[in-house]
Amino acid sequence: MSALLIVVGLYLTLAVYVALQQRTYIFPAPPRGRTPAHADRLVKLSSGQSFIYLPGAPVVVHFHGNGEDLADAGSMIDLLRSLGVGVLAAEYPGYGISPGRASEDALYASAEMALHWLRDEQHVPPERVVLQGQSLGSGLAAEMARRGLGGRLILISPFTSMASLGQRFFPWLPVAPLVRHRFDTLSKAPGIGVPVLIVHGTEDELVPFSMGEELARVFPRATLRPIPGGHHNDLLWLHAREVRAAIAEAVGR
Q: Could you say which of 2, 156, 167, 190 is the most buried, measured as most Cβ atoms within 10 Å of its Cβ?
């Protein structure tokens, strides 16, 4: 009995540790102080919210992955600009030069603030906005689409929910009740009626391709573009041509 109690105690201790450390796993921001890509186009609001803005039509609003910040966004911004579209590359609270602390609610509030600036200050209506999210950013883009802030949605390497993704990495823990930052795109998808493009590498080792397939089945107007042989972090390096072609079709280029 004592051995069983020790095992149970260790299990509970580990579960509590993972729960307390989840912010580190979900929001592993790079070291601060790096210069953002296209820094000459940096916009800083009075709230401290920062983003890169290059005008054009339509405007693709890009939300990056969880291990990146705007200093890493150059390749994506350049790819989008090569299509002749405008770009707003958003930053997250606690990332790069943006103040605050990352959380699901904080990221949503920051993203909505940038989109309201785009609408109110640059007079770009939601129907001319393409919401694009990569990895973690896919959860933000989907939520902004649910709020009616974009006319199209592009999801690159998207996950169904943080709980499902966490269960994949910690199969021996009851992840669902422990996750506070849920980013539950799967439950939101049926209510998002805008056209959706899903781009996903078939060999993605972090977010399985099957999650992209599952989302494509649930969104009412989704198109899935598999990237054969693509992994999670090499799409813009080894498969840029395929990714560009898929995005070009989605934005009408």
A: 156
Which residues span the domain enclosing 244?
A: 2-250
Residue 20 has pLDDT above 90, yes or no: no
31-66 tens-digit pLDDT: 988 999 999 999 999 888 899 999 999 999 999 999
Q: Which of 61, 193, 199 is nearest to 128 (CA)?
A: 61
Half-sphere exposure of 63 (CA within 13 A, CB side): 31
Q: Which pTM value belongs to this model?
A: 0.93
Helices (H), the chain: 2-20, 22-26, 74-81, 104-120, 136-146, 162-169, 175-178, 185-188, 209-218, 235-238, 240-250
CATH no. for residue 225?
A: 3.40.50.1820
